[in-house]
Amino acid sequence: MARRGTGEVAEKLLSILSNQSETRGGFSVQDIATKSEINWETTKRYLEMFCKLNVIIELKDGDKVLYQKVGQDEKDTLFGIPLSQNNRITIQKIYATIRLLWKEKHDIPIYKTLLQKVAVDVVETRFPQIPSGWYLYGKLLPLASDSEDGTPFDNDEDIEATRKALETYSSCTNTHEIRLLQYRRKEQNLYIVKEQLATLLSGSLTKDITLFQSINEFAMQVEKTENNEKTKAIAEAFAASILSICRNSDEKQLFSARPAIIDVFNRVWELIATCEYHESMKQFYDEEILDYYMSSDIVDKEELSLEALESLEPFEPKLNLKDNEQMRKLKALQGAGKDLSPEEKKKREKNLENMAASDLFRAHGIDQS
């Protein structure tokens, strides 16, 4: 039988555990191993990890240990990254408390952007062990805020911390102001510059020094790390291409190029923001786990960014660009945004599958004491 990938193993085991009509109180390790056609040792190792993540629970049946799935799967977390049941419940309590306090003073539903920004402040103040990271529109919690299943806090300290966080944004009148306030409070220059550039690009493009400075600053604010060399090069190629078009095109040409420029900006920002989320979540998860859940998405966004950059070529002035450093980088990247090779995928999956249960717990940031 062909070797199963890590994701396939986890999905298969959780699928079996999710079938409540069959479990009748739970399955034993042998029951699950037989149904999944996965060997006993691997099944046991995954079940131990799921227990530590509070995805499943152990049930005692005399001398027999049974396992049963609890809560929801990870379809409601960003990139499907695991979230413990305790953290999930706490986040739901935060969302519910924010909604309750908001309704005390307002007749309209709270903005999702505001909900997330306030929730992040509550987590940083009261629950620093809960993961949070920077993504498209600022810092957020990994659990979607759509559900209203949670119950509000019942202790004064958590309620007061939530009220204080909500008051921080009380002067904001729209989502743009809400985002900017968070960026400035947390000194996130990349996000401040991105917001400014997005505003400039949404208007009429002109040969404005402010626009030129924002484009340059945007590329400069993308920090180069050992893992995002391609992303940094794409950001620089974006800046070089946009500046070339804006400086050497007339008003009519800029008007024609504007939709393509905005599309490229959005594609490149999605890539950068995904890398920012990956980087900011390292304090909560092992990098190898983050790579497993996010690397395919990052590769896809690299490819989409390169394709979008190619779409700008008809708008670029006919200049001699042979010696342009950014264009050389861009050409070197063309066709490089491919998915992991089968060998690389097997190596990554093998590393995950061969990790001891204790290593998997550590990779998920779980205290085994």
Short description:
The chain has 369 residues and is mainly α. Helices cover 61% and strands 5% of the residues.
- How confident is the prediction overall: mean pLDDT? 83
- Percent strand equals under 5%
Rg, Cα atoms, Å: 24 Å
**How is the main sheet built?**
2 strands, antiparallel
Distance N to C terminus = 38 Å
> What overall geometry do the principal axes of the alpha carbons give?
flat
Low-confidence stretches: 355-369
Structural overview:
This protein has 369 residues and is mainly α. 61% of the residues lie in helices and 5% in strands. The chain has 16 helices and 4 strands. It has helices at 6-18, 20-23, 29-36, 40-52, 85-103, 112-126, 156-168, 175-185, 189-202, 209-221, 229-248, 251-280, 287-310, 325-333, 342-353, 357-363, and strands at residues 56-61, 64-69, 133-135, 138-140. β3 and β4 form a beta hairpin. α5 (85-103) packs across α7 (156-168), α8 (175-185) packs antiparallel against α9 (189-202) and α11 (229-248) crosses α14. The longest helix is centred in the last third of the chain and has 30 residues, at 251-280. 32% of the residues are buried.
What's the SSE blueprint?
Elements: H1 6-18, H2 20-23, H3 29-36, H4 40-52, E1 56-61, E2 64-69, H5 85-103, H6 112-126, E3 133-135, E4 138-140, H7 156-168, H8 175-185, H9 189-202, H10 209-221, H11 229-248, H12 251-280, H13 287-310, H14 325-333, H15 342-353, H16 357-363
Antiparallel strand pairs: 1-2, 3-4
Helix pairs in contact: 1-3, 3-4, 4-16, 5-6, 5-7, 6-7, 8-9, 9-10, 9-12, 10-11, 11-12, 11-13, 11-14, 12-13
Task: For the structure shown, list the relevant keywords.
disordered C terminus, two-stranded antiparallel ribbon, 5% strand, Arc Repressor Mutant, subunit A, two-stranded antiparallel sheet, 369 residues, mainly alpha
